[in-house]
Write a structure and sequence with these properties.
- The chain is an alpha/beta fold.
- It has helices at about 20-30, 50-60, 65-85, 90-100, 115-120, 145-155, 170-180, 210-219, and strands at about 5-10, 105-110, 130-135, 160-165, 180-185, 195-200.
- Strands 3-2-1-4-5-6 form a six-stranded parallel sheet, sandwiched between helices.
- Helix 7 (about 170-180) links the parallel strand 4 (about 160-165) and strand 5.
- Helix 1 crosses helix 3 and helix 3 (about 65-85) packs parallel to helix 5.
- The chain is globular and about 50 Å long.
- The protein starts with 5 loop residues before the first strand and ends with a helix.
- The mean pLDDT is about 90.
- This is HAD family phosphatase.
- Pfam families: Hydrolase.
Length: about 220
């Protein structure tokens, strides 16, 4: 019915306002390790997988076990998400419009499975995702292209037929490397521009028609 085969949504900072919760969690763990996080840490925290952030904290503090730090980050983030993860403005309206028009959509996240399931069972309950992908479901997560390649394949499409919606530099890089046209709705970090990226200030500006236009342009 249209040139738009499917939409692949990031979760944290895109559909739900959890990037702040992740920053708070990282700050709490960093404090315990004797490091106060600031703007210089943001590229290693925002939009990054747990293992990447844990490795960064080990580098800047020294002596900690990366696995233990990753576990602490996951548990702290889960507790915050379980207490409430607000849906981003415009997200529910867009998801409802895509469903009404028969456009399939999936969730592609760099968060651990336990966190994805908590959000999908809470803030995003009753949203009819075709499936969800977490950091645990591919050999490499964002910024590598694996998550978006796998997601497009599971839907039966090429990545270039699927628009990815992202908020972070690593997420946008992952989708672009996979071959997806990318709609960027920034949250905490500025995302560099590229030929494959279109920007919107909020999901409140985004419609299925806009996403179809991205598909035609990229195609």
């Amino acid at each position: 019915m249209s040139g738009l085969a499917a939409v692949l949504f990031d979760m944290d900072g895109t559909l739900v306002d959890t990037e702040v919760l992740w920053w708070e969690t990282t700050g709490e763990v960093a404090d315990r390790l004797g490091h106060r996080i600031g703007p210089a840490d943001a590229p290693e925290v925002v939009g990054r997988a747990v293992a990447d952030t844990a490795a960064h904290l080990v580098r800047v503090t020294g002596g900690a076990d990366a696995g233990a730090v990753a576990d602490e980050l996951t548990q702290g983030f889960f507790r915050r998400v379980a207490a409430g993860a607000p849906v981003r403005p415009g997200a529910q309206r867009l998801l409802t419009a895509l469903e009404a028009q028969g456009v399939p959509f999936a969730l592609v996240s760099a968060s651990p499975r336990v966190v994805v399931d908590q959000v999908v069972g809470g803030a995003l309950a009753h949203v009819p995702f075709a499936f969800t992908l977490s950091a645990d479901d591919t050999a490499r997560t964002k910024p590598h292209p694996d998550p978006y390649r796998v997601a497009a394949g599971r839907l039966g499409f090429e990545p270039g037929e699927c628009v990815a919606v992202e908020d972070s530099p690593d997420g946008a890089a992952s989708a672009e490397a996979a071959g997806c046209p990318v709609l960027v709705v920034p949250s905490l970090l500025e995302v560099p521009g590229s030929a494959a990226r279109t920007f919107a200030a909020s999901l409140e500006e985004v419609t299925p028609r806009l996403l179809r236009g991205l598909r035609r342009t990229a195609g």
